Input
Amino acid sequence: MQVFVGLGSNLGDSEQVLRQACFEMMQWSSVRNLQVSNWYRSRPQGPQDQPDYVNGACCFETHLAPEALLSALQALELDLGKVKRRHWGERLVDLDIICYGQLSMKTADLTLPHPMAAKRDFVLVPLLDLAPDLVLPGYGTIEACLAKLPDTFLYASDTSDSKVMA
Output
């Protein structure tokens, strides 16, 4: 199944932490053909008394079930040093499943596609790098979602290209 994961960080060397997260995922036997978007800087969506974020996305193929993937990503966040201090607050690393194929589901622990993905340019623009024709189930194309946004959080992209990591 093709999966898209949103990446974010606003503490420490954010780009390095996100690169490390991608590298670690690439080592998993359950991950194939990992690709990474450009990195983007964004202002915080939550409390404004925190540093700006670095955001991106990755996509890969996996045989893991959605809940197993969520557990693996949460374990990776902890391994990388994530400590959640407050809702929508600063964090060293945040890894969110944005979509899992075209699956729509809602459990106590996981909603797919991610319920806020279609409302956040810092999620949508990195997805556009990876899959311009991607359709978020229930929301439409990435371009259509971007056209509906009333606000932007992004500043600018770096100039590096997306790349296949594994």
User: Anything to note?
Assistant: The helical segments are 14-27, 66-80, 121-130, 142-148.
